[in-house]
Amino acid sequence: MSYWKVATLLLGWAVLAGCSATSATAENSLNNLLIATPQVADDHYQLELAKLNEIISADNENLDAEMMGELLYRRGMLYDAVGLVTLSRIDFNRALEYQPRLADAYNYLGIHYSQVGQYEMAYEALDAAIELEPEHPYAYLNRGVAAYYDNRFDLAYDDLDYFFQRNPNDPYRALWRFFAAVEQDRSAAAHELAEAMILSDNEAWAWNLVKLFVNGIAEQDFLSNYATLNMSEHETLAERLCEVYFYLGKYHQLQGNWQSAAVYFKLALATNVHVFLEYRYAGVEMEWSQYKAQQED
């Protein structure tokens, strides 16, 4: 392993850890932002919702419990995708009445409970998802994120590290593990993040976000040259910027630039990409950043 590369990337970390960037630097970055048109609900989603409403509402004796559970779960997913979270949560709970072993419904409920700060209910739902499906692709991530926002950073790290180890080439997994780790040991967390980047064997665009966090790239350089790099034909500008602005908000939090962080989280929310994890928690992060900014005034 190239430890000298890790050391080189981390040369500036002590500065990042010990002091804040100047207000002028933060303002300059905010003056050069891309703004995307907020994402609107897909027409296909709306048409499918209309059809599902018709089927579920009809007095159809041909629908057995398993089919009704699947239909309610599917409608809950679509409600979630268009931002109708309360209706979504109602359908997931109803789906479980018909199919009590529907791990994906528990996973969604865990996310929703986390978003509103009902962490014990989130843990209960996500534990159920994992018990029913031990190899569930996202339940460990979501339980780790719930623990992170519940300030249980040791538990968060355990789940997020487990999630990372299942695919160490995913930069987003590396970043979320870092967010839990940095609350326990800032220097060790930065070293671990840099190491993850060096050992990865792909060039996913989001590794540039990782470079930002380990001082391998300047923020303005990132915004100018990397924020929209390698966008796929299936990726919208709103989706990319939802991620970019969320992680820039986290970056500014680490520097103590709470007002700039709050602006970035507002921009992430403005994209309306309801299904992205970054959108789901941007509101929580924005409120926290605003609270910290007010404390410093």
UniProtKB/TrEMBL annotation:
<keyword id="KW-0472">Membrane</keyword>
<dbReference type="InterPro" id="IPR019734">
    <property type="entry name" value="TPR_rpt"/>
</dbReference>
<dbReference type="InterPro" id="IPR023605">
    <property type="entry name" value="Lipoprotein_NlpI"/>
</dbReference>
<comment type="function">
    <text>May be involved in cell division.</text>
</comment>
<keyword id="KW-0677">Repeat</keyword>
<dbReference type="InterPro" id="IPR051685">
    <property type="entry name" value="Ycf3/AcsC/BcsC/TPR_MFPF"/>
</dbReference>
<keyword id="KW-0802">TPR repeat</keyword>
<keyword id="KW-1003">Cell membrane</keyword>
<feature type="signal peptide">
    <location>
        <begin position="1"/>
        <end position="26"/>
    </location>
</feature>
<dbReference type="GO" id="GO:0005886">
    <property type="term" value="C:plasma membrane"/>
</dbReference>
<feature type="repeat" description="TPR">
    <location>
        <begin position="103"/>
        <end position="136"/>
    </location>
</feature>
<dbReference type="Pfam" id="PF00515">
    <property type="entry name" value="TPR_1"/>
</dbReference>
<keyword id="KW-0732">Signal</keyword>
<protein>
    <recommendedName>
        <fullName>Lipoprotein NlpI</fullName>
    </recommendedName>
</protein>
<dbReference type="InterPro" id="IPR011990">
    <property type="entry name" value="TPR-like_helical_dom_sf"/>
</dbReference>
<comment type="subunit">
    <text>Homodimer.</text>
</comment>
<keyword id="KW-0449">Lipoprotein</keyword>
